[in-house]
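testing teh design pipeline on a random one, pls ignore if ur not involved
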């Protein structure tokens, strides 16, 4: 999930796995595989950067949610290094 900003300044959390395309129209239009379209304030490059960072973080930590820490305890989002950067 990545956090983007709508044109009414509201935050929207988007499932990065559902992004089909990101276009500059000249605004940034995100099209999801569901057919829904979202116009956001971020530049195309920023959206792509957030998706790439999110996917790298997921791959690095294997599973963010439900993953186990060094002591066998469940990790919280705050425990995952870089969590704040993708949102």
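output:
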């Amino acid at each position: 999930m990545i956090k983007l900003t709508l044109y009414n300044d509201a935050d929207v959390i988007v499932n990065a796995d559902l992004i089909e395309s990101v276009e500059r129209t000249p605004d940034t239009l995100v099209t999801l595989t569901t057919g829904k379209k979202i116009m956001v304030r971020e530049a195309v490059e920023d959206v792509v950067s957030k998706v790439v960072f999110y996917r790298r973080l997921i791959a690095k930590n294997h599973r963010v949610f439900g993953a186990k820490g060094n002591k066998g305890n469940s990790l919280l989002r705050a425990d995952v290094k870089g969590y704040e950067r993708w949102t």
